[in-house]
C-alpha cells in the first residue's frame, strides 16, 4: 500500500469516492461522467482523464499541439498508435506515472476517472486509496458504438488500451449504454444515489 508521505504517494486531496470508469471506444464513458458531474456540480466532483497527462507529455516530447490531441479529431487519430506505444513504454517503466500526475492538486471530494484502461491503473488507485476506489464499466453494443462513429481500427481496438480490462472480472458497477435513454437514466439515478451517500 502506498502511504502518504512516501515519494510514490499521490499528491491530491483525500477523496470520499473515486469511480474508475472503463469501456470500449464510443461506449459513452465521457457522456456518463459528464452527466454525473453536471448533476453533482464542479465544486463536489472532478473528472480526471488519465489520457490528459499522457497527451500533454507526448505533445511536449514530440513537438505536437496538445489541445488538438485532446479532442476527437483526425489530428489525434493520426498520432493515436504512436501515443499508445509511447504510453505503454512509460507505464512499463513506472505503472503509476500517469495516475500520480492526474490526481495532483485535485480538491473535490468525488473523482470520476473517465478513462481507466488497464489493470495497473485500477491497482494503483486501489493501493493508494483503498475501498474509496470503485470500478464502473460502461458497455454498449457494437451497433450502438458504430452509430456513434466507431469503426474498428487494427492496432487500436485490439491493443491493451482497449482490451486490457476485458477479462478484469467483477466491476462494482456496470452501466449499459445501448441507446435506451430511459434505461440509462435509471442506472445513472442509482449510481448518483450511491455517490450522494458518500458525501
Write the layout of secondary structure elements.
Blueprint: E1 17-22, H1 29-40, E2 45-48, H2 51-62, H3 66-70, H4 74-93, H5 97-103, E3 110-113, H6 119-129, E4 133-139, H7 142-147, H8 160-163, E5 173-176, H9 181-197
Summarize the structure.
By secondary structure, this protein is of the alpha/beta class. It has helices spanning 29-40, 51-62, 66-70, 74-93, 97-103, 119-129, 142-147, 160-163, 181-197; strands spanning 17-22, 45-48, 110-113, 133-139, 173-176.
- What is the overall pLDDT average? 89
Q: What fraction, in percent, of the residue positions are helical?
A: 40-55%
Major β-sheet annotation:
5 strands, parallel
Q: β content, as a range? A: 5-15%
Structural class, by secondary structure, is alpha/beta
Cα distance spanning the termini:
24 Å
User: In terms of per-residue confidence, which ranges show pLDDT below 50 for 5 or more consecutive residues?
Assistant: 1-11
Number of helices: 9
Q: What spatial form do the alpha-carbon principal axes imply?
A: globular
Cα gyration radius (Å): 16 Å
Q: Would you count the extended β strands for me?
A: 5
Amino acid at each position: 500500500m502506498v502511504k502518504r508521505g512516501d515519494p510514490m504517494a499521490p499528491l491530491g486531496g483525500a477523496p470520499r469516492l473515486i469511480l474508475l470508469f472503463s469501456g470500449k471506444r464510443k461506449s459513452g464513458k465521457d457522456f456518463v461522467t459528464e452527466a454525473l458531474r453536471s448533476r453533482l456540480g464542479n465544486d463536489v466532483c472532478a473528472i480526471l482523464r488519465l489520457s490528459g497527462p499522457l497527451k500533454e507529455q507526448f505533445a511536449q516530447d514530440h513537438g505536437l499541439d496538445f489541445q488538438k490531441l485532446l479532442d476527437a479529431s483526425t489530428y489525434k487519430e493520426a498520432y493515436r498508435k504512436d501515443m499508445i506505444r509511447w504510453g505503454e513504454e512509460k507505464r512499463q517503466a513506472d505503472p503509476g506515472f500517469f495516475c500520480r500526475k492526474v490526481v495532483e492538486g485535485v480538491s473535490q471530494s468525488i473523482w470520476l476517472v473517465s478513462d481507466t484502461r488497464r489493470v495497473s491503473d485500477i491497482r494503483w488507485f486501489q493501493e493508494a486509496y483503498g475501498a474509496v476506489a470503485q470500478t464502473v464499466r460502461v458497455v454498449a453494443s457494437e451497433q450502438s458504438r458504430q452509430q456513434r462513429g466507431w469503426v474498428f481500427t487494427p492496432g487500436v481496438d485490439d491493443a491493451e488500451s482497449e482490451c486490457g480490462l476485458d477479462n478484469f472480472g467483477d466491476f462494482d458497477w456496470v452501466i449499459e449504454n445501448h441507446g435506451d435513454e430511459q434505461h440509462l437514466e435509471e442506472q445513472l439515478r442509482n449510481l448518483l444515489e450511491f455517490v450522494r451517500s458518500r458525501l
